[in-house]
Amino acid sequence: MLYRRIPRTPLEVSPLCLGTMTFGTPVDRTAAANIVHRALDGGINFIDTADIYEGYARYWGSPGGRAEEFLGEALRGRREHAVVTTKVGNPVGPAPADTGLGRAHLTRQIEASLKRLRTDYVDLYLFHRPDPATPLEESIPVVADLIEQGKVRHWGFSNFDASQIREMIRVCDTGGYPRPVISQPPYSWLNRGVELDHLPACRGFEIAVTPYQPLQGGLLSGKYKRGRPIPEGSRAAESKWLSEPDDELLDKLDSFESEARAARLDPAHYALKWLLDREGVCSVVVGVKTLRQWEELMAVLD
Q: Which one of the listed residues 53, 177, 212, 270 is annotated catalytic?
């Protein structure tokens, strides 16, 4: 395994990061453990989760926590072999205090995450999304305190734009706080919006990029074909978040699959390799529903 170092940290991570958003539904406790153990046995040491993750049963404001719980159980006795990322900031309840990046919520949620993960620290703690109601001058000192206490090793963010990244750096440098070291944006062959400003900002500030949605919800897996019904068991068939591809999208998928054939790669493998070849991309977050899917994706590392 050729590990990649996250800049300005001692952390070396695998090119693939196991995403756990599906843990809960449809991935049950036993299946989650099998997937995590197969990842570790195969040299994958990077695992991503969040306080809200509980699979496709997730709804806005539901309590979450299932994925962290399953992951904590799966890592029992093997915690030191994993670099664990979790995230905070999305709603975990109906009340105003159940969301955001305020001091009280951050302090409460790190304790809940650590308990579910059965650990006394997380390697990377990410702000899951911007919180317009809370200034970064409040949020960043909290995560700096958590680093000082040893509950968090390093921090980062997901779903922030370039202007917000620059503001984070300003707050850190002004207050003498540790800078963020990792960004997790949506990025794929189909979705390249981050290339304009986000990626250059991260490169300039030495922030590792670890994209999520590399297969664009399964669209880049090669499953979706013109004139054929949505495949049974696909994410579009099971998830309320995706709809059937239209003709414009199918045209793009045809172009993508032509590139994959030219590269002599399976479409899913080509989608991952395409991202891993982008400058500044450190690792790619991939979620799966079955152990077989995970083993098939791991083959890209060959």
A: 53
